[in-house]
Amino acid sequence: MKLNRAHLIIYFAILTMSICSYGQNPILKLGEKDFMYAADPSAEVYNGKVYVYCSHDQDTAVNYSTMQDYIVLESDDLKTWKNHGVVLKPREYSWAHGQMNAPDVAYKNGWYYFYFPYNKTHIGVAKSKTPVGPWEEAVTDKITTIFDPTVFIDDDGQAYIYGSDTKQDIGDKGRHVMGAKLKDNMIELDGPWMRLSEETVAEAVHCFKRNGKYYFMARKGWRTGYWMADSPLPTKPYAEFKGYITKRQIDAPTHMSAIEFKNQWYYFYQRGDVNNGTFHRRSACFEKLKFNNDGTIIPIEYTLGEGVKTNKPVTPIK
């Protein structure tokens, strides 16, 4: 069928709308009201809305030692975002101190549980009746030790916590994808940490489930690698390494999460080459996540919103 001018106008209008619907990166832009550097985005879907829980890089940061609190971004359409700003300051708790990097949040039995690292690898927990707080202490000491905690709740209600044993070995020597059960109270381990990957990883473990398969993502080298398994704790045989989701990394260590929202999957990540940022001043972004017929992931392409420029060279693949 030959397209006339009217058809072409409609076609390009729809194409533009499709691109703009998610090609708006970064989520927060320098110069906008209430701008903050939002890193380590952990996206969750609650009550028909997307909430992105982020660590917070300071405007003057030259390393990660000044990470000390957490912010929340909210959207019901992935176009317009509300920045709730700093919602949790764990250093106000007498027992939490030191560097506070990547967090995660999980909902169970009427409570939202906020898992945050302090002193890099000690995992504390706060809780709230709403996705944005106010947050109160759920514990008065660490519940475990792991790097970059993430929590996944399976269809049967069983909760699991994941991370990597970067910074200290838990079990086998080396850095691996690690997992453990959580008790129903969400603040105690229900058994030991288990190694889930044959391959070594650096950090940033995340888990999600799609069509009965469990996916584990983590930073491997300077890219996001991923594994697939038939169970939430695949131990011998370990989860199967499938390759890489990202082709390259944008001036920041890769840290990611994935959600399904309104029948579309999305991949959230961070980059340090926008908003006059650096390796230590990062900004949250997201892309559509697509799959092959066999469930494997199609590598993503990074996008930027109209008029947004990069200010740093791409980190090379090593």
Mind explaining what this structure looks like?
The chain is mostly beta strands and 318 residues long. It has a single domain, classed as Glycosyl hydrolase domain, family 43 (Tachylectin-2, Chain A), CATH 2.115.10. Helices cover 5% and strands 41% of the residues. Strands 5, 6, 7, 8 and 9 form a five-stranded antiparallel beta sheet that branches. The chain is globular and about 50 Å long.
- Overall mean pLDDT stands at 91
Got a strand count? 21
Question: Spans of 5+ residues with little confidence (pLDDT < 50)?
Answer: 6-21
SS-based class: mainly beta
Give me the CATH architecture, please: 5 Propeller
How much helix, percentage-wise, in residues?
under 10%
